[in-house]
Design brief:
The structure holds three protein chains of three kinds. By secondary structure, chain A is an all-alpha fold. Helices cover 80% and strands 0% of the residues of chain A. By secondary structure, chain B is mostly helical. Chain B has a domain of 162 residues: Orthogonal Bundle (MetI-like fold), CATH 1.10.3720. Classes of the chains: A mainly alpha, B mainly alpha, C alpha/beta.
């Protein structure tokens, strides 16, 4: 084990942190929007809409992320009409393709988590809100959503960790995030083991921080569960 | 264009199908290995030994916290060294080698096992303690309780969670393609590059993976129904 | 009891291969990428084919050993050799000083210049054509103006190369200001050139030509044939440093195959021209 090399690789490897964080942050933020929309569509009561939203979730949960990334990056780029469309400036960039794939992937999983959480809100609470004269929309905004979001946090925490790990697959479409840099450095030093251990440690720390943040959010959002001082 | 997917000499259909078979083989073996690891991990977590607790915690935290791709690479390039060291400790001096299949199974199995650990631990804990007390009161020994009461109930409680772990495991096998094992993802990748038809081949792969996940969802649902046939419904 | 179980379990998991140390070579496992035509490729049945597979089989006959070709992704091909997953590499790998630090090479069995390819409609198809047919990096005085012109033409453009290659070394050393994207396989760089994600690709001449020919009329090979310097001393068989005996076997076999025209014959068959080193 070449400790010196591991130590020396750290600054260059951390140089990929910015890109990794952008990938995670971008796809989680956009994924939350997608998840919210899809969860609502699946609960809309309109059959065709529910079916389409369900099909999206089915496809993206049922296939490996790697296939999704390659399909979006290499697959879509193959077509003349895609390259001539207004979407090409976005799809041309590996960064946006990666964010798109990660977003659609996490959107599908998160929408299921959110849907489950919405369905778990006790009917009595909604009835009570309606009885107080709240409209359906207001009851949803004030009662159902806040309760559901608190409810889904632990499961969402797992999803965040999965996304931190999934961002490493962006290296397969030429992006130089942490794993990409590790692979590039391995090509120069041939020290596979050492460099992947350093990369692994960085991800471990990222995930530790992510799970702490989620725990903190949980704590903040559930003041009524804390012991009274 | 569809000729490329055919089974003839110029079609990659045969490769995709044997790749799919390999994917299933890796996934099933890794899932089984994962259940063994998961059972060990769960017993370690539930034991009263602090050392075992800590070991199991390190296992699940590390394996679930680093990208699957890195776990596979680390085993692919480091696995041989570890195994050779173990072999020479047993007095064998020749070169020992893990083939790509074994490495894939062990790597994906370790990941699968980390998730199974949590599922099995939760399932064991949801067996009501009163039942164990009742079994003891009937004069059953520890092994008999394990065999007749704990394991059957745990299996029932664990099934839905293990179904999710199976889906994860199946999809994680796609990453084993980096070790050049000829599973579905690698066959697809080679075909897409050689024919310059990435959309066609990655779509075909997506359909095949979807078929696998759909069939296994149905099978797990059936298993759950069977396991719950004796349970009273509300 | 536990020991027995553990040993059995290990035995079931492991494929125990040969005996180590001083040995007679009976089988030689040769790794190839299988995605680098015409050097090596994979056919639709999943079999490795190409110039190096035919040459490797010929060399093994001369060495009186059995050959077994195994597929291995390019970016792990050297570490996996060191790990003992196979005994030799024949994968269009150029002999370079950096690689010689970690592995050994046989004498070269082929050599090729490096070239750029661009979209036929791109302005680069003209501007990269700087009126020089061949540029030897060993002749620094003559190479400098050529590289300056290349750098000028490629300003603000992106170039796709394969990871862990002499072409990355070339870009980093001579065209470090040009943005570069590294691909796992040359095929994928070709797909991205065709779709316009990168403005140019740089690679071994025959491989770049194969990519250009795959979609007729869309792309062109352009600019000087670059040789020498970081482009290296030709392609050789990569071997572990410990296996000096195997190197000797390969050196002799390659020497014979070069002398009796086998390499030339196979090269004409796969490349359409002669790639034998001189």
């Amino acid at each position: 084990m070449n400790w010196q090399l591991m130590w020396d690789s750290l600054p260059r490897m951390l140089g990929g942190m910015g890109l990794t964080l952008q990938l995670i942050g971008g796809s989680l933020a956009l994924g939350a929007v997608v998840a919210f929309a899809v969860a609502l569509l699946r609960l809309s009561g309109n059959r065709p809409v529910e079916w389409i939203a369900g099909a999206y979730v089915f496809v993206f949960r049922g296939t490996p992320l790697l296939v999704q990334i390659f399909l979006i990056y290499y697959g879509l780029g193959q077509f003349e009409f895609v390259r001539d469309s207004i979407l090409w400036p976005v799809l041309r960039e590996p960064m946006w393709c990666a964010i798109l794939a990660l977003t659609l992937n996490t959107g599908a999983y998160t929408s299921e988590v959110l849907r489950g959480a919405i369905l778990s809100v006790p009917q009595g609470q909604i009835e009570a809100a309606r009885a107080c004269g709240m409209s359906r929309a207001l009851a949803f905004r004030r009662i159902v959503l806040p309760v559901a979001v608190r409810q889904m946090l632990p499961a969402y925490g797992n999803e965040v960790i999965l996304m931190v790990k999934a961002s490493s697959l962006a290296s397969t479409i030429t992006l130089m995030e942490i794993t990409g840099i590790a692979r590039r450095m391995i090509a120069q030093t041939f020290a596979v083991f050492e460099l992947f251990i350093v990369a692994g440690a960085i991800y471990l720390i990222l995930n530790f921080v992510a799970s702490r943040l989620i725990k903190y959010a949980e704590w903040r959002l559930t003041p009524y569960l804390r012991a009274r001082a | 264009m569809l000729e490329l997917l055919s089974f003839g000499p110029n079609g990659w259909g045969g490769q995709l199908l044997t790749g799919t078979a390999m994917t299933v083989a890796v996934a099933v073996s890794a899932f089984a290995f994962g259940i063994v690891m998961g059972s060990l991990g769960a017993s370690a977590k539930l034991s009263h030994s602090l050392i075992l607790n800590a070991l199991a915690d390190v296992y699940t935290t590390v394996v679930r916290g680093i990208p699957e791709l890195l776990v596979i690479y680390l085993l692919f390039f480091g696995g041989n060294g570890v195994v050779s060291a173990i072999a020479s400790a047993f007095g064998y001096d020749g070169r020992v080698e893990l083939n790509a299949f074994t490495i894939g199974v062990v790597a994906v199995g370790l990941i699968s096992g980390a998730y199974s650990t949590e599922v099995i631990r939760g399932a064991v804990r949801s067996v009501p303690f009163g039942q164990i007390e009742a079994a003891r009161a009937c004069g059953m020994g520890r092994w008999l309780i394990l065999r007749r009461v704990l394991v059957p109930q745990t299996m029932r409680f664990a099934l839905p969670g293990l179904g999710n772990v199976w889906q994860l495991t199946l999809k994680d096998t796609a990453l084993v393609s980096v070790t050049a094992l000829a599973e579905l993802m690698r066959a697809t990748h080679l075909a897409a590059g050689a024919t310059r038809e990435p959309f066609l081949f990655y779509s075909a792969a997506a359909v095949l993976y979807l078929a696998l996940t759909t069939v296994s969802t149905i099978l797990f649902d059936r298993a759950e129904q069977t396991a719950n046939r004796g349970v009273r419904r509300a | 009891m536990k020991t027995i179980v553990a040993t059995l379990a290990l035995g079931a998991l492991l494929a125990v291969t040969g005996t180590a140390g001083a040995k007679e070579w009976k089988t030689v496992r040769i790794a190839s990428e299988g995605a680098y035509p015409p050097w090596n490729a994979t056919d639709p049945s999943g079999k490795l084919i190409g110039f190096e597979v035919d040459l490797g089989n010929d060399l093994c006959k001369r060495m009186k050993v059995t050959c077994e070709f195994v597929a291995q992704d390019w970016d792990g091909i050297i570490p996996a050799l060191q790990q003992g997953k196979y005994d030799a590499i024949m994968s269009g790998m150029t002999i370079t000083g950096e690689r010689k630090n970690v592995i050994d090479f046989s004498v070269p069995y082929g050599t090729e210049p490096s070239v750029f390819a661009v979209a036929a409609a791109s302005p680069l198809a003209k501007s990269l054509n700087i009126g020089v047919d061949r540029s030897d990096l060993n002749n620094e005085a003559a190479a400098k103006p050529v590289i300056d012109k290349l750098a000028e033409a490629l300003k603000g453009k992106s170039v796709g190369v394969q990871v862990s290659t002499i072409h990355i070394d070339f870009m980093e050393k001579h065209l470090s200001k040009v943005s570069m994207r590294s691909y796992d396989k040359m095929d994928n760089a070709g797909i991205d050139l065709a779709s316009g994600r990168v403005d140019a690709i740089l690679g071994d001449r025959s491989v770049v030509e194969a990519i250009v020919k795959a979609e007729p009329g869309k792309m062109v090979v352009v600019g000087p044939n670059i040789i020498g310097g970081v482009i290296g001393e030709g392609m050789g068989v990569g071997l572990r440093k410990a296996d000096a005996d195997l190197k000797k076997l390969f050196d002799t076999a390659i020497g014979e195959a070069l002398k009796d025209g086998t390499v030339k014959k196979l090269s004409t068959q796969h490349f359409g021209y002669d790639i034998t080193p001189n």
